[in-house]
Please model this.
Amino acid sequence: MTEASVRLRPVVEDDLAMFRRFLTEPGLIGLDWAGFRDAQAPARRFAADGYLGTEDGRLIVEVDEERAGLVSWHATGPGVAKFWEIGIVLLPEWRGRGIGWRAQAMLCDYLFTHTPAERVQAGTHPENIAEQRSLEKAGFRLEGVLRSVEFRAGQWRDGWLYSRLRHDPSPL
Model:
């Protein structure tokens, strides 16, 4: 897998079927499955702003011109000191191939280039070793454990928080 084969692009209408799958197929997004969601929500959001809002957005991850998944970001933080929190979901057939870390690094570079944010953060599950490695390879550093931060599968669970700052070197 070469860097040139992974790219990010804006969402187009044909991508909405994949978005609906993430909302209606149990387990497709792995540990982040939170139950069935409104399958028409992606079309409404796409009609509103094409998933490129001022406070959040999504881009499609493509590999050799094939849709592999998506990256997302949303503004968070106290008061006016906003920063970005990012996420990624790849379709199962694209996982474990070195795509995730590249896509997340590319998204960070994009956000640092086009917004004044000083910080990008990402959370993951303690048991998601592959995502921890991906974040580290994408230039993120582990900051710590967030205790009982997520309700999943009937119980409260811890999360791990990673960050990359504007002055941290890009791995790309």
Q: What stands out?
A: The chain has four helices and seven strands. The mean pLDDT is 94. Strands lie at 6-10, 56-63, 66-76, 83-90, 119-124, 141-152, 155-165. The two ends are 14 Å apart (CA to CA).
